[in-house]
Amino acid sequence: MASLADVSREAGVSVATASRVLNGATHPVSADTRSRVLAAAERLGYSPSALAQALVTRTSRLIGVIVSDIVNPYFSVIARGVDDMSTRAGYVTMLSNADRRTSSEITRLQTMRDYRAAGVIFAGSGYVDDPRTPELAKAVAAARERGVLSISLTERDIDCPVITADNRAAAYDLTDHLVSQGHRRIVFVEGPAGMVATEQRRAGFLDRMTEAGLRDLAECVEGGFDFEAGHAAALRVLASRDLPDAIVAANDEAAVGALNALRQARIDVPGQVSVAGIDDLPVARFVGLTTVSLPLYELGAMAARRVIDAGTAGPAPEPGPPVVLPHRLVPRETTARRP
């Protein structure tokens, strides 16, 4: 494989001059010299170092994605949207796990800033009243000063563009569907405590139950965003009270966990209890789960497009109002009208 020194010798110029031409430096180089260097590089099959180019141009064709839980398929769909769009534009995606910790988001952002990433996408929802949010906002501002555009897929107070779905409205619409089917006693299995997405989805559920005059029949129970949490929550519901008309979980995985617990207890779903979730992940389609389809792939793709466009349009514009993509209700076999 040819080196930069090989190219400089072939073109009859210094290594520094060859580097300026091949790595896009703004230092003036004559047209004749530039042509000789480019011709030499082509003859030798030389490819410039992406890292070297990043050091010269102060940016790279790298887009970072920071997720809350790397094994959660919710983030896999978002990451696929980012990567498909990035690949088409000649960019590379770097996926990083934050384990739902703001401190990890800060360090991951700083690392990507040091790698001269073109942009960083925060795919996780963050926490309500998080004491470390100001520190994260400061890190976002510092990255922006270095040319790194941050984008959040949830509304967070970190002063960057937001591309999101309406979690509150999604939960409202799902609850409305169940109420319209005659369900009255409905249990909501919450997501992780304190997370913005948990609070938004619970609020949407309670909004619709209150409007329907069913607030006293609505119950929220501790849960999480994984199969095990939904399964455990359903077992607690079964052990402590009469069967509810329906169980709504804060996401599809928890809903499938609850569905499994009910079926293990030989409870007919949806004959005795309806079950529904939110997200419309592949597992929901596999088990016939009623859910709300969120535009996860589109969120990732649009966020990547925003980063790519910013890289070709000069300084990033002000964040502006959030961009909210639509969701849709997807009724399937786990819900039915009450007799």
Automatic annotation (TrEMBL):
Listed SUPFAM superfamilies: lambda repressor-like DNA-binding domains (SSF47413), Periplasmic binding protein-like I (SSF53822)
Record's keyword terms, sorted: DNA-binding, Transcription, Transcription regulation
Top-rank taxon, per record: Bacteria
InterPro entries membership: HTH_LacI, LacI/GalR-like_sensor, Lambda_DNA-bd_dom_sf, Peripla_BP_I
Record GO terms (molecular function): DNA binding
Domain HTH lacI-type as annotated: residue spans: 2-57
Keyword Cell inner membrane: no
Gene3D superfamilies assigned to the protein according to its UniProt record, in alphabetical order: 3.40.50.2300, lambda repressor-like DNA-binding domains
Protein name: LacI family DNA-binding transcriptional regulator
